[in-house]
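Action item from last meeting closed. Structure (451 res):
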C-alpha cells in the first residue's frame, strides 16, 4: 500500500493564464508535486469550461495555453498524472452516479448558482433566467473530478472551498448508501495557499480577469512591460520616501523575489526610488524569472502535437486508475453484467476467494508455470515460465500474501508484475470493460480471507 498524499487540482480552460494564476495556483502546485510524498493529479477542467463559455475557439485556445503554461512552468509529466478532464469518460459517468445521490437542496445552496439567481431577482427577471443545468450541477462534476481519484488534498482558491465540501457530502452519501461498510471514496480536504492566493492586480484588488487588472504571463515581454507600466501607485515623486508595505507593486515584487532581493528593493523604495524605476525593477525581476519559461511556452504552443501526445499518455495513466474504480462503483449500484463472473465474485467474496486456486504444471522444455483459476474454473492468469518449481511456488505465495497487486492494463489484456518483472498474463478480452471486470475478479480472488 502506498502512503503518498494524493493532490488533485484542475483549472477551468476559459482564459489565458496570467501572473496571478501562475503565482497563486500553478507554481505552488508544481512545487508541491516535487515532494517525494506527493502523488499529483493535475488536469485541464475543460468540461467545466463548457459551463461558462460557448465559444469553441476560445475553449480550444485556452486548453492549449493552460497546458503549455503548466509544462513551461516545469511540470514533470513523468512524476505527475497530467490530463484533460474530457479525455476521461469515467468522469461524466461518475458524475451521473453522484447526481443520483446528490441532494437538490445541497446544490440550491451553491454560491455560484445563488449569485446568478440573486442577480436575476435584482434585475426583476425570472430567478432561473439564463441558468443552465451545467451551472447548477457544476459542483457534482467537480465532486466526480475529486472522488474519482480519491484525492486527499485539493489546492483551490477560497471561492472553491464550498465545492470541496460538497464533494465530501456527496461522497459520504454514496459511501453510506452503497458501501456496505466499505468507504469507496476518500474524504478530500481543500488546501488554501494563504501566502500566494492573493496576488494583487494592477489596481491593488485581487488579480483577476473579471477586474481587468491582470499582468500577462507568457504572451510577450512587451505585454508584460506594458501592463507593469499601468500599475497604480501613489503620487510621491522620485526622491520622496515610498511606503513598501502599502504598495501592491512591492507585494508583486515580493512574490517573485528572494529574501535578499526583497530587502534591497525595500531599502531603495524607502530612500526614494522613483515609481518609474521601481516598475522597471519589477519588470527585470519577472523577465529574469519567467523569460526562459516564456520561450518554452512559445515552443510548446508551436508544436501542439507534442502536447497532445503528453496529454494522451496522461489520460491513459488516469484511466488506469479510473476505469477499474468505476467498474467497482457500477457494480455497487447494481449495474452489473448478466454473465460476467464479477457479480458472482463480489456478492460471494469469501467463497470465491476460498475457491480460487493455483494449478502448476511443467512445460515440455522443463520450465514451470501455473494458472490461477477462479471459483467457477475460468482462467484468471497464466504465468510466465520459471526455471524451477521453487521460484514458481514463491511467486504464487507472494501473489497470495495480500500485498498490493501491481496490475498493468493493455488494450485487451493485463499483466501482473512483481519486483519489476511480468510474472503472469491474463487471457485476451473482447473489450476493456470485461478486462476491468476480470481485474476486479482477480483482486477479489487474491484477497486474503480474515477469519
Ligand atoms: N472549479 C475549479 C475552478 O474554477 C476548477 C476545478 C474543476 C477543480 N474541477 C476541480 C479544482 C477539481 C479542484 C478540483 O477553479
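Sequence:
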Amino acid at each position: 500500500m502506498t502512503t503518498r498524499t494524493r493532490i488533485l487540482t484542475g483549472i477551468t480552460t476559459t482564459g489565458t493564464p496570467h501572473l496571478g494564476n501562475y503565482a497563486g495556483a500553478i507554481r505552488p502546485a508544481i512545487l508541491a508535486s516535487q515532494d517525494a510524498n506527493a502523488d499529483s493529479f493535475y488536469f485541464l477542467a475543460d468540461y467545466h469550461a463548457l459551463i461558462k463559455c460557448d465559444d469553441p475557439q476560445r475553449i480550444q485556445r485556452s486548453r492549449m495555453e493552460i497546458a503549455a503554461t503548466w509544462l513551461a512552468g516545469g511540470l514533470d509529466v513523468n512524476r505527475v498524472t497530467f490530463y484533460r478532464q474530457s479525455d476521461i469518460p469515467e468522469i461524466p459517468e461518475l458524475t451521473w452516479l453522484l447526481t443520483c445521490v446528490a441532494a437538490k437542496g445541497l446544490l440550491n445552496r451553491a454560491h455560484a448558482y445563488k449569485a446568478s439567481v440573486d442577480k436575476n431577482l435584482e434585475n426583476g427577471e425570472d430567478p432561473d433566467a439564463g441558468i443552465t443545468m451545467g451551472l447548477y450541477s457544476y459542483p457534482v462534476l467537480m465532486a466526480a473530478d475529486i472522488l474519482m481519484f480519491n484525492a486527499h488534498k485539493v489546492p483551490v482558491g477560497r471561492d472553491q472551498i464550498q465545492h470541496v465540501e460538497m464533494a465530501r457530502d456527496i461522497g459520504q452519501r454514496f459511501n453510506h448508501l452503497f458501501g456496505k461498510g466499505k468507504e469507496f471514496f476518500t474524504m478530500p480536504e481543500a488546501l488554501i495557499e494563504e501566502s500566494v492566493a492573493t496576488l494583487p492586480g494592477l489596481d491593488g484588488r485581487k488579480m483577476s480577469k473579471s477586474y481587468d487588472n491582470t499582468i500577462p504571463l507568457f504572451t510577450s515581454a512587451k505585454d508584460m512591460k506594458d501592463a507593469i507600466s499601468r500599475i497604480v501607485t501613489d503620487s510621491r515623486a522620485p526622491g520622496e520616501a515610498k511606503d513598501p508595505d502599502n504598495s501592491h507593486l512591492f507585494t508583486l515584487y515580493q512574490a517573485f523575489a528572494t529574501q535578499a532581493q526583497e530587502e534591497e528593493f525595500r531599502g531603495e523604495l524607502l530612500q526614494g526610488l522613483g515609481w518609474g524605476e521601481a516598475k522597471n525593477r519589477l519588470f527585470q525581476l519577472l523577465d529574469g524569472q519567467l523569460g526562459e519559461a516564456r520561450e518554452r511556452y512559445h515552443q510548446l504552443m508551436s508544436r501542439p502535437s507534442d502536447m497532445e501526445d503528453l496529454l494522451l499518455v496522461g489520460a491513459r495513466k488516469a484511466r488506469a486508475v479510473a476505469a477499474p474504480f468505476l467498474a467497482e462503483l457500477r457494480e455497487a449500484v447494481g449495474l452489473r453484467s448478466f454473465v460476467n463472473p464479477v457479480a458472482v465474485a463480489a456478492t460471494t467474496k469469501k467463497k470465491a476467494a476460498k475457491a480460487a486456486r493455483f494449478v502448476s504444471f511443467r512445460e515440455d522444455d522443463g520450465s514451470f508455470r501455473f494458472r490461477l483459476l477462479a471459483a467457477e474454473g475460468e482462467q484468471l492468469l497464466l504465468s510466465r515460465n520459471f526455471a524451477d518449481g521453487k521460484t514458481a511456488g514463491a511467486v504464487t505465495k507472494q501473489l497470495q500474501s495480500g500485498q498490493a497487486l501491481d496490475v498493468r492494463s493493455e488494450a485487451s489484456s493485463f499483466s501482473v508484475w512483481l519486483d519489476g518483472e511480468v510474472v503472469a498474463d491474463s487471457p485476451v478480452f473482447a473489450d476493456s470493460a470485461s478486462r476491468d471486470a476480470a481485474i476486479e475478479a482477480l483482486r477479489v480472488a487474491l484477497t486474503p480471507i480474515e477469519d
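Note appended to the action item: The longest helix spans residues 304-333.
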